[in-house]
Amino acid sequence: MITSPSSSARSGPNPILLWMFSSIGKKTIVAATGILLVFFVFGHLLGNLTVFLGPDVLNAYAQKLHDLGPALWAIRVGLLGILVGHIYFTMLLWKENQRANPKKYIAADPIKTTVFSRTMRLSGLVVLAFVIFHLAHFTVRVVDPSYLVMRTQLNGHEVHNVYAMVVKGFSNAPVVAIYVIGLFLLTFHLSHGISSLFQTLGITNRRIRSNYELAGRAIAWLLFLGYVSIPISVLFFGLGKGFAQ
Amino acid sequence: MKFHLKVWRQKDANAPGTLENYEADNIPADASFLEMLDIVNAGLTGKNIEPIQFDSDCREGICGSCSLTINGVPHGPGRGTTCQVYMRKFKDGDTITIEPFRAEAFPVQRDLVVNRSAFDRVIQAGGYISERCGSAPDANSVPISKVIADEAMDAAACIGCGACAAACPNGSAMLFVSAKVTHLGLLPQGKPENGRRVLGMVRQMDEEGFGNCSNYYACEAVCPASVPAAFIGRMNREFTAASVKEIVGMNV
Ligand code: HEM
Ligand code: SF4
Ligand code: FES
User: Fold this and answer.
1) Chain B hits for A204, Cβ within 8 Å
2) Is A157 on the interface with B (CB under 8 A)?
3) S-S: B126 plus which of A111, B197, B199, B213, CB 3.0-4.6 Å?
4) How many distinct helices (H) and strands (E) make up chain A?
């Protein structure tokens, strides 16, 4: 009879921990948190694209989010937890993978691996830096404190003027450069990540795998185009001209 | 033909090891890679230099012993094992770098020889069927669909050579383990122990110090048996299902 080893050196005998800290368990957690982050990136893009529908629509959308109150905080804390879990488990994998293959070939050959898959840690860490900058810029508004006092009237209420903030923010070329670079690296990350997560979760077979790879890359680039359209429109095509206070 | 070789020489498991230069002269184009090494070794013996140690057995591509890495690619150019690489694949005067398989779980014993017994222990942790199945049953007495039989055969093609782990930037053996899990798990004789098998083999794989899969697919590119990486996805699914059963306290 096949007897499963009762415990492995890396984890205790608790079956949940045994799963979580097994090779496949860690990968599954990275993939599950990854897909949740991808859903967020999608939703966030849809919300942001309201900028093209004019100041009132974007401001109303932003106000709706803020009116969620405690629910908004629950979402924020949840997202933070997902991000922390994603990064924590990828770093565990990274450490173990370095230990599992410390001596590289002197005559190194990439053997069919893609530049996207080889740069997941680098692209991920740049995305992390970008996310921190983005939160400081538009959520905490410490990059330019003038955003804090931008107010406008909406249906008789005074609300934060998100539209003016976005237009002013993206009228600054170095800031736009940071956004384009950050989003480009996110695209790199997702060019491998989206197809990879289906393999990790086991939703695959040998016929469909190459389709996942194409579709994953296409989705990653569509997200890129969707996101960069906003700063590029503001900086180069005069979107919202005159609204920045 | 003539080649410049850079060969990894290492006295024993604890010695540091370096690349040494050797010339391979008068090599027939139809010599296999291992025959080329035999010719070079005959020359070295004449000069009182220790011959280059490497593993081989069947020399016909079925045993998986001939583990070495040619120019950074386990088993060298093309599909197939090292013993099936012929020198006509190279250009006259090429410089060829020969290194042992690299993965922490495959420690180098000497020169190009590595210890692959970690794979044996992974097999011992579940890569078998416990119940005696008797002698070969009459054809079609146990109906198995053609699709399933083909899939199981493709997995059973794995020769346990270790090239997958040696090619993997993470030193991960998942292609090998997934081939065994798939091959035994698809057939009626292996099915009853599927959960235990995948739990046991994956845990042993982790314990041996193989890395985690990052879905690079270098394994699939070098596998001499063309085992598809989609089997790793299948193993992930089985492992998660068996873990859930274990977590909720069901029998696995
Ligand atoms: C913020 C810092 C981030 C870091 C440091 C990071 C790091 C990584 C690394 C190293 C991997 C590869 C794990 C492996 O296969 O060994 C990975 C996978 C992945 N990441 Fe990230 N990531 C970050 C953010 C994100 C974000 C924002 C998203 C989504 C929008 C995302 C989505 C994914 C997906 C889908 C995968 C594939 C999971 C799989 O291979 O199954 N990551 N991440
Ligand atoms: S899966 Fe392929 S590369 Fe890996 S051990 Fe089996 S035959 Fe060798
Ligand atoms: S020596 Fe047996 S496969 Fe090469």
Assistant:
1) 230, 233-234
2) no
3) B197
4) 9, 2
Q: How many domains does chain A have?
A: 1
- Rounded CA-CA distance B138/B145 in Å is 16
- B64 Cα–ligand 3 center, Å: 5
**Minimal Cβ distance to A100: which of B105, B230, B238:** B105
Instruction: Tell me the domain boundaries of chain B.
Output: 3-110, 117-247
Q: Which residues line ligand 2 (CB under 6 A)?
A: B 64, 158-164, 175-176, 179, 223-225, 227
**Residues near B201 by beta carbon (within 8 Å), at least 6 away in sequence:** B122, B123, B125, B126, B127, B177, B180, B181
Let me know: does B157 contact B225? Beta carbons within 8 Å.
yes
Q: What is the residue range of A195's domain?
A: 14-99+112-237
Fold of B3-110: Ubiquitin-like (UB roll) (3.10.20)
Confidence label for B131 from pLDDT (cuts 50, 70 and 90): confident
CB atoms closer than 10 angstroms to residue A151 = 12
Nearest to A200 among B102, B172, B236 (CB): B236
Name the superfamily (CATH) of residues B117-247. Answer: Alpha-helical ferredoxin (1.10.1060.10)
pTM metric for this prediction: 0.93
ipTM above 0.90, yes or no: yes
Q: Is B81 in the pocket of ligand 3 (CB under 6 A)?
A: yes
Summarize the confidence of residues B68-81 as an average pLDDT. 95
* Residue at A106 is within a domain: no
